[in-house]
Amino acid sequence: MIARVGLALFAGSLFGAGLAISGMADPLRVRSFLDFLGNWDPTLVFVMGGAVIPMMVGWLLQSRLRRPIAGGNYILPGTRKIDFRLVAGSILFGIGWGASGLCPGPAVAGLVVNPGPAVIFLVAMVLGMALSRIKWRSHPSPDLSSGNPTRSV
Question: What's the CA gap between 18 and 48, in Å, rounded?
C-alpha cells in the first residue's frame, strides 16, 4: 500500500513538473499550438512526443507483465469501437480545450499557478461529466450495455 501511494505521488509530481516545465499548463501556449492558421507555436508537438514515446514503451512492458508493478490487476478498456459517444465526446473535448487552453491535467496544475480560470474550468468539466452520465444512463451505448465497461487482464 505504501509503495502504491509513493509511486502515485512520484508519478503525479513528475507529471505536474513536466506540465509546468514544458509550458503545457499555460493556456496561451496551448491556444497558440492549436492556432494552425494564425501564429502557430509547434513546440508542444515535442511535449506530446515526449509523452507518446514513453507511453508506447509502457504498453510494450505492460504486455510482458502479468500484473502491474504496484500490484492489483490491469483494468483496460473493454472496446475499441468508434461510436457516436466517442466521436461526440472527442469533439466536445477539443472545443473545450481550444476555447480555454486547458485540459484536465493542466487545469489541476493551474489550481496552484492560476486558480481562478482553473476552478471555473474544473467546475464546468465536472458539471459536463455529470450531465453526460445522466444523459447516457437512460440511453446506454451498445458497447457499455453489458454493465462492464472495462475488462481486467
Answer: 11
* In the chain, where the domains are located: 2-141
Looking at per-residue pLDDT, the higher value among 109 and 145 belongs to: 109
Q: Cα dist. 126→75, 101, 120 in Å?
A: 23, 17, 10
Residues 18-67: tens digit of each pLDDT: 888 888 888 888 888 888 898 899 988 888 888 899 889 988 988 888 88
Return the C-alpha cell found at 149.
465497461
Mean residue pLDDT of the chain comes to: 81
Q: Nearest to residue 78, comparing CAs of 142, 148, 141, 137?
A: 148
Give the pLDDT band (50/70/90) at residue 145: very low
Three-state DSSP string of the chain: CHHHHHHHHHHHHHHHHHHHHHCCCCHHHHHHHHCCCCCCCCHHHHHHHHHHHHHHHHHHHHHHCCCCCCCCCCEEECCCCCCHHHHHHHHHHHHHHHHHCCCHHHHHHHHHHCHHHHHHHHHHHHHHHHHHHHHHHHCCCHHHCCCCCEEEC
